[in-house]
Amino acid sequence: MKKVAILTNGGDAPGLNAVIRAIVKTAENNGIECYGFIEGYKGLLNNDYVRLDSAGNASGILNRGGTIIGSSNNTNVFNLKTVNENGEVEYKDFSDKCVQNLKDDGFECLFTLGGDGTQKSSRDFSRKGVNCIGIPKTIDNDVAATDITFGYNTAVSVATEALDRLHTTAEAHHRVMVLEVMGRYAGWIALESAIAGGADCALLPEIPYDINKVVEKINQRKARGKNFSVIVVSEGAREKDGELSVKRTLDEGKGLDNVRLGGAGEKLAGQLEEITGLSARTTVLGYVQRGGTPSAYDRVLSTKYGVKAMELAMEGIFNVLVSYKHGEMTYVSLDDVVGKDTAVGAASSKNRTVPMDDPLIDTARRIGICLGD
Ligand code: F6P
Question: Which residue of the set 12, 116, 140, 257 is catalytic?
Answer without folding.
Answer: 140
